[in-house]
Amino acid sequence: MRFPPSFLDEIRDRVPISSVIGPRVSWDRRKTNAARGDHWACCPFHGEKSPSFHCEDKKGRYHCFGCGVSGDHFRFLTELDGLGFPEAVERIADMAGVPMPARDEQAEQREKQRASLHDVMELATGFFQQQLQAAAGAKARAYLRDRGLTPATQQKFRLGFSLDSRNALKEFLAGKGVAKEQIEACGLVRHGDDIPVSYDWFRDRIMFPIEDRKGRVIAFGGRAMSPEVAAKYMNSPDTELFHKGEVLYNFARARKGMGRDGTVIAVEGYMDVIALDQAGFENAVAPLGTALTENQMELLWKMAPEPVLCFDGDQAGLRAAWRAADMILPSVQPGRTARFALLPEGKDPDDLVREEGPEAFRAVLADARPLSDLLWMRETAGGVFDTPERRAELEKTLRELTSKIRDESVRFHYQQDMRDRVQAFFGAPRGRPQGRPDQRSDRGFSRGGSGRTGQASGRLAVSDSLARSAMVKRAGGVMPLRETALLVTLVNHPQLIDEHFDHVETLDLTNTDLRQLLAAIVDAVAHGQAGDRDSLRKALGASGMDDIWERAVLLVRRARQWTALEDAAVEDAREAFAQALHLQRSARTLHKELKLAEAALATEPTDENYRHLIEIQAQFKDLQATEALIEGFGVLSGRADRS
Predict the structure, then answer these.
(1) Are residues 227 and 159 located together in one domain of the fold?
(2) Calculated CA dihedral for residues 498, 500, 501, 506, nearest 10 degrees
(3) Does the pTM of the predicted model rise above 0.85?
């Protein structure tokens, strides 16, 4: 009886090969890592005292480094136990809990046809490879050379070129005796009732053979050489051999190249996979021009319990990461999740390894974050949770998200984790000591994330050393004086808004109330309500800003920041505002640079990073001294000059 390959693949995937071999050997405890499916034993095929027989559940294979035997589930039973192949299949099917298929002569005939289609695809692959090396492929070869792909890499991935012709491949295959029906069944030509004469599906494109889990070519991807073609990348249509949402590009090679760490990396495109392989990352795969599907995620989980999903460093990449997170969340379970890596802004893996080398990509992988971090970042990044209603809405959103997890144990731990994050984010309840926020739990990605820690009042996080600095006063019950003086000056002297509008609109403030006041000022300007002080004050009152405004004015009066007040001459207000704006922008820039320097030193404690940190700290001290001079003497002495 001939068994459908899909049936054999299914029962192999369901039964760990260690379960088949385990009853016949004793696993070596020192070398075996059962959690990773990595097992060692003395070989059952030849006598030995030290274990050289290895089996790996991820790959479903065994190999003895002593006598050289290797094989899969079925071969182990046929060679060691002497079972016939049908008996071995029946035993594995029984272990998998899958009924044996009834004999289906039509299915067997279809399988023969599929085998012949594989032969056709192999002929097409060879034809495309030949054309890439011929004179007609010169432009394509130059493109690949410019993209940094060596001839050895091109050969490894069997890259090719389709001629700018409607009939070149069709005529080649016909000359090899391939029937019209087979060419059509492979998706190599466009045909149909509305197409009188079929023609080649791929024309004037660099060709990427797409292989199944056994390494057989089942489809192609084509990259257009002409910039005028609308579809830059195009795949084969779905066929008897190929269903786009169920295949990962480079699956067979990546499974062999996973190495000891057992990691697989999912990136977004063919060129990313190939460039990473050339840079030494042989464990990369990619979906085929679409968002990652559930079937493709299942393939990833068969390779590794915690694949790394890597997305391009732009807004589209971030949205793709969020879609993938939502897709896999219901299916996570113990030993079955994912980590997410976002590349630097504007980069894809191909760009990164070509321009900055393999170490830059290793750094991206090292910064990959768990699924829980990605979800937390998405729901909190850029948000302001300054009211009970907004905080309750966040908690509701997180509960709804975690309730989608089907595994009860994982769902419980996710809910607990999110509660802990929320408590750290909002701070301890009143009457209890304030604990330090968990800086790990709400850390964003190296780019794209908010990177905020602390309470949800909208304040930005500061590092411990910066928090101790008198320059950066964190918001709480008290508004920072410099920020307050800036906004009071703008309201009392609206002409300064027009003069500094670009800086005003993007002013970086640490205090939530002042950020609301600034937003109301900009909104009033946008609606033509800031022509003079009275109009602007009226607009702020209509926006509910009276309480914030009164507290701001009171603080400025108490600090004797007279240039910000209504009766100051506009020239004095302009000069003081320019000084304060420069200090504010410098302080916020140094604040960000200090955080980056501290992070760099923590990650890589080199002399260079230490010196850089010391330089920034010195700049802080200089800026502090300048601020003290201006606030302690400059403004007051100016007032004295006028009395």
Answers:
(1) yes
(2) -160
(3) no
Residues 443 and 449: their CA atoms lie apart, in Å, by 8
For the beta carbon of residue 326, count every other beta carbon within 10 angstroms. 13
Which domain range does residue 516 map to? 481-641
Residue 216, classed as helix, strand or coil, is coil
Which among 96, 119, 134 is the end of a domain? 96
**% of the chain exceeding 70 in pLDDT:** 84
Whether residue 635 sits in one domain with residue 486: yes
Residue 146: which CATH number? 3.90.980.10
Alpha-carbon gap, residue 82 to 29, rounded angstroms:
29
Number of structural domains (the chain) is 4
- Answer whether residue 568 is part of any domain: yes
Q: Which residues contact 561 (CB under 8 A, 6 or more apart)?
A: 481, 485, 488, 576, 635
From residue 37, how far is each of 20, 266, 336, 481, 506 by CA, in Å?
13, 21, 14, 61, 53
Residue 588, in any domain of the structure? yes
Task: Please report which confidence band the pLDDT of residue 46 belongs to, taking 50, 70 and 90 as the band edges.
Answer: confident
What tens digit of pLDDT does each residue of 213-258 get? 888 999 999 999 998 887 889 999 999 899 988 999 999 899 887 7
Question: 61 vs 57, 78, 592, CA distance in Å?
Answer: 7, 14, 51
